[in-house]
């Protein structure tokens, strides 16, 4: 917003011991060797402005502004905590030295404090800090989520060239040399602790658990039209063994969730059990359905049957359901696990599972003998493939 005469610019630069030549309205400037900070045209413009006097440059609002400024939609979508973390928190998370979160962590070259030295490799760090901050304020009932970025040194893009501008390597050369930036990934994190909000109404003692979190995720995926979601037993040092699951959509891994390991609960001074989930938003958007029409209502009635049986205590329910679905045939519309029991009357090392099966045909009313035949196939498959004991 300021016009400065060419002669005045020449005088300002010459006063800074620069060799300036003016030819047809163009200033050619030779930089003295003691000023290596002057590299580009904008550097010279700043020098002119400094000598001319910043106080002489008027403050003006650019014209044609018709809308208030706002975040880009991608950033509005993200509700995020601070991305810089204290590396020592990884010790409290019980992460071993060879854990990917440590091996692939991105350090800062010039950290401003000991508390913020690295970019976070997982949302678990931010979620755990949030749980601890709430616990310190005697808030033990917490249900929070965050959508933010995590960073891993796995080669997601070009690594920044920190050399002076005149010595930086050409971009194409760096691509060929596979000199890459850390991977930046959008994720959604969930943390639960204590009683759910729904327990407040009746004042009950219900607390969140592994299956509460799994139900939240299942509804989340259903709302996004993410189909064929499966849950698989997994191990993670921050989470409780036997109460941790990996989430897959088809063959693609999209997340992880589970109960906190008791040692992590203790190290973060939490009042009791807590549960974490982290879902890869970028992967989730790839598999989310764009159109989710409501299912058509059938003109024919459904037939419900219950079945209960004993299996090994460590037998994954997902595998049981796969056997049932395969043996039932095309008329099985739905199956739901409604009871799990082990204890009095159940042999050691086994548990009882009870399922409700819903059968329906699209083109006719099912006859009892058709459903009976399907149930016989299911019972036989459970015994043959899983050594189940029918009840």
Describe this protein's structure.
This protein has 391 residues and is α+β, with helices and mostly antiparallel strands. Helix content is 29%, strand content 28%. It has 13 helices and 15 strands. The protein has helices spanning 6-14, 41-52, 73-77, 89-92, 100-103, 124-136, 171-176, 199-202, 210-223, 262-267, 281-287, 317-328, 368-386, and strands at residues 19-23, 26-30, 84-85, 106-107, 118-119, 142-158, 180-193, 229-233, 239-249, 252-260, 274-280, 303-312, 332-341, 350-359, 389-390. Strands 6-7-11-10-9-8 form a six-stranded antiparallel sheet, with helices on both faces. The chain has a four-stranded antiparallel sheet with strand order 13-14-12-15, with helices on one face. A hairpin with a 5-residue loop joins strand 8 (229-233) and strand 9 (239-249). It is elongated and about 100 Å long. The N and C termini lie far apart (86 Å). The model has no long low-confidence stretch (mean pLDDT 88).
């Amino acid at each position: 917003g300021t016009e400065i005469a060419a002669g005045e610019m020449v005088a300002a630069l010459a006063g800074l011991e620069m060799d300036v030549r003016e030819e047809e309205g163009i200033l050619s400037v030779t930089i003295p060797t003691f000023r290596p900070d002057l590299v580009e045209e904008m550097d010279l413009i700043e020098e002119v402005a400094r000598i001319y006097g910043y106080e002489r440059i008027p403050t003006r609002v650019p014209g044609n502004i018709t809308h208030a400024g706002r975040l880009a939609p991608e950033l509005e979508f993200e509700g995020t905590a601070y991305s810089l973390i204290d590396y020592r928190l990884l010790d409290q998370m019980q992460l071993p030295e060879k854990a990917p979160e440590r091996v692939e962590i991105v350090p800062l070259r010039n950290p401003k404090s000991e508390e913020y030295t690295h970019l976070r490799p997982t949302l678990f760090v931010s979620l755990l800090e949030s749980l601890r901050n709430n616990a310190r304020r005697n808030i033990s009932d917490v249900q929070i989520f965050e959508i933010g970025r995590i960073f891993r040194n796995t080669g997601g893009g070009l690594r920044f060239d920190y050399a002076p501008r005149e010595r930086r390597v050409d971009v194409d050369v760096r691509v060929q040399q596979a000199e890459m930036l850390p991977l930046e990934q959008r994720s959604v994190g969930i943390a639960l602790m204590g009683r759910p909000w729904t327990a407040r109404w009746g004042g009950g003692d219900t607390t969140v658990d592994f299956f509460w979190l799994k139900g939240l995720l299942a509804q989340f995926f259903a709302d996004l039209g993410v189909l064929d979601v499966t849950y698989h037993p997994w191990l993670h040092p921050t989470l409780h063994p036997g109460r941790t699951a990996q989430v897959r959509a088809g063959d693609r891994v999209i997340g992880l969730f589970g109960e906190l390991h008791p040692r992590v609960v203790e190290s973060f001074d939490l009042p009791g059990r807590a549960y974490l989930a982290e879902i890869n938003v970028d992967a989730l958007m790839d598999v989310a359905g764009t159109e989710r029409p409501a299912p058509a209502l059938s003109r024919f009635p459904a037939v419900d049957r219950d079945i209960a049986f004993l299996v090994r205590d460590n037998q994954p329910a997902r595998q049981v359901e796969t056997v049932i679905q395969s043996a039932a045939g095309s008329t099985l519309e739905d199956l739901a696990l409604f009871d799990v029991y082990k204890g009095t009357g159940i042999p050691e090392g086994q548990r009882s599972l009870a399922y409700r099966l819903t059968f329906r045909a699209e083109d006719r009313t099912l006859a009892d003998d058709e459903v009976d035949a399907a149930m016989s196939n299911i019972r036989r498959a459970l015994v043959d493939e899983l050594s189940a004991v029918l009840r």
